[in-house]
Amino acid sequence: MRLETLRLQNLRCFDRAELTPAPGINLLLGPNGAGKTSLLEAAYLLSHGRSFRAGGREALLRRGETAFTVYAELTVAAGSRHRLGLSREAGRWAARLDGATLGNVGDLLERCAVVCFEPGSHALIAGGSEERRRFLDWGVFHVEPEFLPQWRRYQRALKQRNALLREQARPDWLAPWEAEMAAAADPIDDARRAYAGALGSWIGRVAGAFLPELGPVELSYRRGWPDETALAALLAERRGKDLARGHTTAGPHRADWSLRFAEAPAREHLSRGQEKLCALACVLAQAELHAERRGEWPVIGLDDLASELDQAHQRRVVERLLAGAAQVLITGTELPPVLREVEAALFHVEQGRIDRRR
Ligand SMILES: Nc1ncnc2c1ncn2[C@@H]1O[C@H](COP(=O)(O)OP(=O)(O)OP(=O)(O)O)[C@@H](O)[C@H]1O
Ligand SMILES: [Mg+2]
Q1: Mean pLDDT for all residues in the chain
Q2: Domain span at 233
Q3: Distance between CA 356 and CA 35 in Å, rounded?
Q4: Residues within 5 Å of ion ligand 2 by Cβ?
Q5: pTM for the model
Q6: Does residue 68 belong to any structural domain of this protein?
Q7: What CATH number should be reported for the domain holding residue 155?
Q8: Quick one: pLDDT band at residue 54, thresholds 50, 70, 90?
Q9: Which of 121, 134, 197, 291 suits a disulfide with 297, CB 3.0-4.6 Å?
Q10: Which of 232, 230, 250, 224 is nearest to 133 (CA)?
Q11: Per the structure, how many domains does the chain have?
């Protein structure tokens, strides 16, 4: 997939702005606070329906405004061109595809594949399970069409069960929701497990290039309730405990995954820089797996690459990017030395303006 145009209206510091990225590598350079990360955020939003930054969706809205829009024109491998629009006003999303209003934002996100590595990405390694689950689910969602309906079905039933738990409802009232959760849980687990297996192999390849000193890596996936246990029976058994806690303590919403390197078996054995490289390996592995499965690359955003990694590692990353065919958006305050000799489109971003320089 390739972004031909990215247009923002009332997003963060931009009132109106347009970026027309080239295929291949694009550098978005400018001073601190210029709006570089916000451009990556806008592209990411069309693919994930949320930002990678903390602060909630409302923080995206330019101060003093009531609605923002991100609009993109993209071409897909088959050669067709699509127009995507995502707006938010009064706490509600509105999505448009090729001029038609969509009933479901998920139908828009499905069309657009953007992955990003940014300063917060190391949470994939060092943070809580929610980030990792979201990361995994985004990948599954883009390669497995049956995943989203099952995921929604599960989330709906979980919400109902949790509401009953909070109300201290009679335990037998939980049963229908537990049956519904259990029915969706197995397909969710199957899809995640299959994806995690493939992702683990790709992470091994990318991490082998970035962090060869850590040796082979293994991804272990945990589904959120014990193996060999039927979820419906487990939920019934845990009613008392869950009523006391006020939430559901087992199921796919508790799934997680982790990486274990032969030469760094515990997460605490990784330096901060290694954590970042590891997170970057996960993001690029996801992009490469997507390219393998979908026959086309997602757009890859790398926020502040130069400030995150040393030059030798930046060089390895750039070599990897050049070996693929993805459109890449890299931000920075200055032109990174490792990119001086690389053919790339150059944009200057400052005070809500974007100018092409090369
Ligand atoms: N909701 C908002 N309304 C108006 N301005 C905002 C809003 N949110 C953020 N900003 C401003 O938008 C600007 C762009 O932020 P952004 O993080 O994109 O900058 P950046 O170019 O990535 O900077 P850095 O190099 O420091 O990472 C900042 O000056 C920030 O204060
Ligand atoms: Mg930034």
Answers
A1: 95
A2: 114-295
A3: 15
A4: 37
A5: 0.96
A6: no
A7: 1.20.1050.90
A8: confident
A9: 291
A10: 224
A11: 1
